[in-house]
């Protein structure tokens, strides 16, 4: 087990990529703070403990800075530090720009972008005190491209996450904290969470799987959706000593969907 001395905080850990990340980090020995709205992360923490791992579930909302500060403090209290932050909390919010309600637009931006900012800002003081840490944001390939309609708010928020990731990586280096790395993972279509949920399309509501099969599969060289566990394993890699020289990057895990 390669992460026995690591305490990992994961937002959005109640399902999808967040759940997969919590399980993967615990399987590699890390102690996990699994955070999500209400009691969504409780079952994930229990699953980890039943498998012999260490995990605590915490109710936290990335829309509230106080919740994020409490999350960081809980990691230190329970496990003696905060070594890795994985920001998985997010919303889809599909819709055309002129049709989407402004409140829905701003909610997507607030959760996906500002929520990532709040979590990072809360975690950084402890990481800076330790002079080491890994911040892994979950962005999207839509954070590098405009998408294909109905995703303007989501795409804008994920472009922001990629930009925030790069800016903080540069900022920390210039401030004398090379031991803290900041990287984004940009998933393609994932067979979990938002990737399989019902979404608005020009043809009406459609599941993510149906959208992929009908519109996107032919654009993906591997001709398949990505599994949540593949994103989780990429996150674990970015937390390992072997990735110490990687920072400010946005890693695509998308079957070749978007190449740059």
Explain the overall architecture.
- With 260 residues, this protein is an alpha/beta fold.
- The protein has one domain: Rossmann fold (3-Layer(aba) Sandwich).
- Helices cover 42% and strands 17% of the residues.
- The protein is built from seven helices and nine strands.
- Helix 1 (16-27) links the parallel strand 1 and strand 2.
- It is globular.
- The mean pLDDT is 96.
Q: How many DSSP helices?
A: 7
Main sheet makeup: 7 strands, parallel
Uncertain spans, ≥5 residues at pLDDT below 50? none
CATH domain class name = Alpha Beta
Relative helix content? 40-55%
Element order, helices and strands? EHEHEHEHEHEEEHHE
Query: How far apart, in Å, are the first and last alpha carbons?
Result: 34 Å
Cross-sheet strand order for the largest sheet: 3-2-1-4-5-6-9
Shape verdict: globular
CATH architecture name: 3-Layer(aba) Sandwich
Radius of gyration from the alpha-carbon trace, in angstroms: 17 Å
Structural class: alpha/beta
Total number of distinct structural domains = 1
Number of E-type strands: 9
CATH topology: Rossmann fold
Give me the CATH superfamily: NAD(P)-binding Rossmann-like Domain
Mean pLDDT: 96
Range of strand content: 15-25%
Offer a quick outline of the entry.
This protein has helices at 16-27, 42-50, 65-79, 102-130, 152-174, 208-216, 228-239; strands at residues 7-11, 31-36, 54-59, 84-87, 133-138, 180-187, 198-199, 206-207, 250-253. By secondary structure, the protein is an alpha/beta fold. The protein has one domain: Rossmann fold.
